[in-house]
Write a structure and sequence with these properties.
alpha/beta; binds glycine; 13 helices; 3-stranded antiparallel β-sheet; 12 strands; about 350 residues
């Protein structure tokens, strides 16, 4: 088992290994020494697989356990579910010394984290991510949110968990397509700063070494979060492939998954960079090969003008320039500020 410490406004550990869920009760007791109640928040798919085991472990550690189950899918991450969860916690007389456990993928982690941030002005919580994407990205770093009708993640808070427990064994129950989604974020970490991680994914494909890959990804995310907890500076490097990725995801009406969208974003930016001499052609080809090795797409079927329009409305736009994260080589990226009137030409080179 690997333990990665995240020392920000709160210091907590991310535990990564096979069978870590078995020790959950003890970890929960460490996080909430005087806690009497534990509320497990999950979705119907994940709860059917793992909630009973998690609850047994919590009960053995002396917690009285309650459970709130959401229908699976991003559509549950809304204001109405959020208020239902808060009412549920109040109805169960949860106090500030008690504990919330977010058991699920990114949707569950985001909404349960936001409930933890706001219920009684903040209650302890543990993230138990059950998808690769949530393990390597959303469970670490304290971003919590719900969606509003006007857009994704528009209401939220920075609120760090008290622990993150990643059990590599739960990935066995993950459908291959959802596993691939997380792989796009892992490749991103490789391109940002870990050549060995990138090459491991390229060579192993979906047969990657779970503990190695999750711990190297989390270590990199930790470094960015520690350097810039509130996402006002260097943490934006984590947006490699995301500005264009978000545009294609939105154009598909979220029919194209986040991971596939980010994969297209990274490949397109890499091709554009090779055209401009920012990275070599070999580098762009290697990035595309890594993406393809994981069965992820490298091109979008959307038109350049539609993508450009959405990119220009992205919140990462900074007045008259758009900050795009660009690869210089595998393991080294930088920020390129592109004047908005030149963005179309830049992206065209990658189409
Ligand atoms: N998902 C990117 C971040 O946490 O900043």
């Amino acid at each position: 088992m690997k333990t990665i410490e995240v020392a920000v406004s709160k210091t907590y550990n991310v535990l990564i290994g096979s069978g870590t869920l078995a020790g959950l009760g003890e970890i929960a007791r460490g996080a909430a020494p005087r806690g009497e109640r534990a509320a497990v928040i999950s979705d119907d798919t994940v709860a059917a697989l793992y909630a009973a085991g998690v609850e047994e472990s919590l009960e053995k550690a002396g917690f009285s356990v309650v459970r709130f189950t959401l229908p699976h899918g991003e559509q549950s991450k809304n204001g109405s579910s959020y208020l239902q969860i808060l009412d549920f916690l109040a109805g169960k007389h949860m106090s500030r010394s008690d504990l919330i456990l977010a058991l699920g993928g990114g949707m569950v982690g985001d909404i349960a984290g936001f409930c933890a941030a706001t219920y009684m002005r903040g209650i302890k919580y543990i993230q138990i991510p059950t998808t690769l994407l949530a393990m390597v990205d959303s469970s670490v770093g304290g971003k919590t949110a719900i969606d509003l009708p006007a857009g994704k993640n528009l209401a939220g808070a920075f609120y760090q968990p008290d622990a993150v427990v990643c059990d590599c064994d739960v990935l066995r129950s993950l459908p291959e397509d959802i596993l691939r989604d997380g792989c796009a974020e892992v490749l991103k970490y490789g391109i940002l700063g870990d050549v060995e991680l990138f090459r491991h994914m390229r060579v192993k494909g979906l047969e990657f070494d779970r503990e190695f890959v999750i711990s190297r990804s989390v270590a990199m995310k930790r470094d960015y979060v520690c350097a810039d907890e509130r996402d006002t500076g260097v943490r934006r490097m984590l947006n490699l492939g995301h500005t264009l990725g978000h545009a294609v995801e939105k154009l598909s009406n979220f029919g194209l998954s986040h991971g596939k969208s980010v994969a297209i974003g990274m490949a397109t930016v890499a091709r554009a960079c090779a055209e401009r001499g920012i990275c070599s052609r070999d580098c762009a080809e290697e990035i595309e090969a890594g993406i393809k090795a994981l069965g992820l797409p490298t091109v979008s079927g959307e038109s350049l003008s539609a993508i450009e329009e959405i990119m220009l409305s992205d919140k990462k736009r900074n007045g008259s320039v758009m900050s795009v994260i660009v690869p210089e080589k595998i393991g080294k990226c930088s920020v390129l500020d592109i004047p908005v009137e030149e963005l179309g030409d830049f992206m065209k080179a990658g189409f």
